Amino acid sequence: MKTDDGSDANPSGHLILTLQERDELRALVQDLVDAPPNRLEDPKWIDAARERSCHLPVRLREAVRLFRADPGLGGVLRISGLPTGTVPATPTEKDSVEHQTTVAAAALVLCVMGLGELAAFRPEKHGALVQNVVPVPGRESSQSNAGSQNLKMHVENAFHTMRPDYVALSCLRNDHDGNAGLQVASVRLALREVPEKHQRILREARFRTCPPPSFNGGGNPVVHPVLDGAADDPNVRVDFSSTSPLDDEGAAAMGALHDALDSVRVSLLLAPGDLAVIDNRLVLHGRTAFSPRYDGNDRWLHRSFVHLDPRRTRALRTGGGYVID
Ligand SMILES: O=C(O)CCC(=O)C(=O)O
Ligand SMILES: [Fe+2]
Prior knowledge:
Helices cover 25% and strands 23% of the residues. It has one domain: Double-stranded beta-helix (4-Layer Sandwich). Strands 1, 2, 3, 4, 5, 7, 15, 17 and 18 form a 9-stranded mixed beta sheet that branches. A 4-stranded antiparallel beta sheet has the order 6-16-8-14. By secondary structure, the chain is α+β, with helices and mostly antiparallel strands. Bound molecules: 2-oxoglutaric acid and fe (ii) ion (FE2). 2-oxoglutaric acid (AKG) binds next to strand 7, strand 16 and strand 17.
């Protein structure tokens, strides 16, 4: 299906690395894995990652650079062919994160370094640079990435003024049954279906968003508009699990936006070695339900956040590190 400007209905970019590019990338990742001091969070290792990201295969650098300039109508860049190394048993504990420079963690960091600077939030997953998205026993119905029931569509950390510009999710293992799809829906596509009277309401501060469960009680609710910025190409800020309208008109407008997003929603079944980079200013994401078995072979993604302008967050980053307090 083509849209009226001639592009694909799901115009998200998909770069499939060639065998030669995979070899080049694997060598670069291994070099980074071995770079001292072998700890993901160490500023020296992060510097090494930034430097090596300048040597990524040229098509990958191009794809990332072009995506940064314009994420397209779909607002998602998928890259296939990242090395994962030997993948151990999927963790099962709550808030699990990576500290060691594994192949999979280094590959994610390396690929997204070309986009901007990595960031994390102190109250969430210990402020780790690379976080695990895994199902956690007893949290099946949680509206967080520890759950396995349907995860509602959301902008990441929608309550936070310094929410990430991009969310990067790389796949080490999909679920046993191939049911867990990363859902993405672009506001650039959805707004074509939202009547102007609702868009006007969505631009007003008539919505309240609470911090997500992953903040473990940290942060405060905020009242804000759902759409802001350019009239013909706005940013979106809403989480259908933790944003509530303040009045009836707000509820109708949010409902219209929800339905429009649903009509353009795309499911991405990530395979090991796939990386999805989501523009968090334009695209909501969520996940379909799946059945974890807690047998060491459950679905496992790595997640990192990226900001385009680290100066914007500097006052909140004690000591200039990557963690936002
Ligand atoms: O599990 C997924 O595919 C997405 C989870 C999610 O929303 C997140 O980790 O931010
Ligand atoms: Fe999310």
